[in-house]
Amino acid sequence: MAIVFLAIWTVILQAGFSKTMHITMNDKIISLIDFSRKNLTTMPDVLHNSTTDLYLQENHLHVVPAWSFRKSRILKNMDLSDNRIRFIEHGAFDGLNELTILNLRSNLLTSNSLDENIFQGLISLQDLFIHKNYFYDNYTFFQTVISRVKSLVKLKIDLSRQNQIDKCLCNLSNLQDLEIFEVPGLTLSDNLFQNLNCLKIETLWITSVLSLAPNTFISFPNLKTLRIAINTGYAMDDVISNIFNALKIFKGRNMTELSITGNPHRNGFVLGHPHFAILENICLQKLNLVGDSILGVKFNPFLDMDLKRIV
Ligand SMILES: *[C@@H]1O[C@H](CO)[C@@H](O)[C@H](O)[C@H]1NC(C)=O
Ligand SMILES: *[C@@H]1O[C@H](CO)[C@@H](O)[C@H](O)[C@H]1NC(C)=O
Ligand SMILES: *[C@@H]1O[C@H](CO)[C@@H](O)[C@H](O)[C@H]1NC(C)=O
Ligand SMILES: *[C@@H]1O[C@H](CO)[C@@H](O)[C@H](O)[C@H]1NC(C)=O
Ligand SMILES: *[C@@H]1O[C@H](CO)[C@@H](O)[C@H](O)[C@H]1NC(C)=O
Predict the structure, then answer these.
(1) Which UniProt keywords apply (predicted)?
(2) By alpha-carbon position, which residue is closest to atom 12 of ligand 3?
(3) How many degrees, rounded to 5, is the angle at CA 110 between CA 81 and CA 19?
(4) Pairwise CA distance, residues 116 & 56, whole Å
C-alpha cells in the first residue's frame, strides 16, 4: 500500500486548560501523522481512521491514556520513544489488532507503569523496542508481560547485573532478533542467557560490553548475525581477546555476519593477529570492525575465507 504522507499544517486549537490537542483535518486519507519533536505533554487527539503510522517521539508525554488510539484500528507503526512516559493505562493499546511495530525506547517506565496484560491485544506485534527504561525494579514481572506477546520477532530490552533472562521468554517462539542493552558493570556469560536456548535467535546485538566469558554464546545455536558494541569508557583491557575466545563456539557454523565496534584499547587488530585464526573457522560473509582499535589488517587470512565483504 502506498504510504500517503501529508504534513499537517492545519490549525492547532489548544482550548484553554483542555488537556487534549484537537486537530482539524480535511476528510483526506492520512496515513502518516508526524507529531514528533513538538514539545507535547499530553497525548494529542490527532488520529484519523486511515492512519497507519503515528510518530510521537521526542516529546514530553507522561502518560498513555486508555483507548488513546481508538480512532484508528489500522495503526501499524507507532513511535513513542524519547518521551517521559511513566504510566501506560490499562487498555491503552486496546483495539490495535494490526499494530506491528511499537517503539517505547527511552522513557521512564518501571514494572509499576504497566499492567500485566498491557500488550495482550497486540496480536500482530512483531517489533517491540522497550529498552532504556527502568524495569529493574521487578524484572521478572517485566519479562512475564513481554512473554505474552507471542507474535514478537524482534525485541530490544535492557539487562542489568542483578537480572537474568527468564524461562518465560520461551513462549516467544517466533523471536529471531534480540538486542540487549546492558547496563555497564556486567561480565556476560551463559548464566545470563541459558534460558534462551529454547528459542531460535538468529540475530543478537549486545551493547556496552565490558568483558565476556568464553561460554557467552553457547545458548545461541542458530545465530547468524552477531553485533557487539564495546563500552568505550569502561571496557577491560582484554575485551577483544574475550570476544574472540567466545567466538570459538561458532567453529564450523554458519555465523555469517560479525560486527565489533568501539574497542577503546589499541590492541584489537594488528597484522597477522591470531584472532583471525578463529574467524577462519567460521563461515563469515561480512565482517565489520569499527573503532580506533584497528591498527592494520593483514588480508591474507581472508583469502581462504570466501569473504564477500569487509566493511
Ligand atoms: C520546544 O521547546 C524548546 C525549549 O523551550 C524550544 O526551543 C523549541 O522551539 C520548542 N519546539 C517546538 C516545536 O515548539
Ligand atoms: C473514515 O472517516 C471518514 C469521515 O471522516 C468516513 O467517511 C469513512 O467512511 C471512515 N472510514 C472507515 C473505514 O471507517
Ligand atoms: C513483581 O510483580 C509481581 C506482580 O505484580 C508481584 O507479585 C511480585 O511480588 C513482584 N516482585 C517484587 C520483587 O516486587
Ligand atoms: C507460556 O505461556 C503459557 C500460557 O500461555 C503459560 O502457561 C506457561 O507457563 C508459559 N511458559 C513459561 C515457560 O512461562
Ligand atoms: C551452512 O550453509 C550452507 C549453505 O546455506 C549449508 O549448505 C550448510 O549445511 C550450512 N552449514 C551448517 C553447519 O549449518
Answers:
(1) Signal
(2) 138
(3) 60
(4) 24
The verdict on the CB of residue 254 being under 6 Å from ligand 5 is yes
CA 295 to chain centre: 31
pTM, two decimal places:
0.85
User: Mean pLDDT for each consecutive 10-residue tract of the chain (311 residues)?
Assistant: 30 30 57 95 91 97 94 94 97 95 98 94 97 94 96 95 89 97 80 92 93 94 93 86 90 87 72 71 76 54 48 41
Pocket test for ligand 1, best of 8, 35, 38, 39 (most atoms within 8 A of CB): 39
Q: Checking DSSP bridges between strand 22-23 and strand 12-13, what pairing results, if any?
A: antiparallel
The pLDDT of residue 294 is: 57
Question: Separation of 49 CA from ligand 2 center, angstroms?
Answer: 6
All 3 cell numbers of residue 274? 591470531
Ligand 1 contacts CB of residue 39 (under 6 A): yes
| Nearest to 99, CA basis, from 167, 63, 47, 24 | 47
Cβ atoms of 203 and 173 closer than 8 Å: no
**CA distances to 137, 144, 146, 260 from 114, in Å:** 12, 11, 11, 35
Supply the pLDDT for residue 21.
43
Please name every residue paired with 182 in a beta bridge, in sequence order, or none if there are none.
159
Which residue's alpha carbon is nearest to atom 7 within ligand 2?
Answer: 27
Residue 149 CA to ligand 4 centre (angstroms) = 11
Q: Which three cell numbers stand for residue 97?
A: 489488532
C-beta of 27 in contact with ligand 2 (< 6 A): yes
Please state, in angstroms and as integers, the Cα–Cα distance from residue 283 to each residue in 64, 84, 206, 243, following that order.
Answer: 46, 44, 21, 17
Distance between CA atoms of 94 and 147, rounded to whole angstroms? 18
- DSSP state, residue 253: S
Ligand located closest to 169 CA: 4
Give dist(CA 214, CA 288) in Å, integer. 21
| The three cell numbers locating residue 9 | 499544517
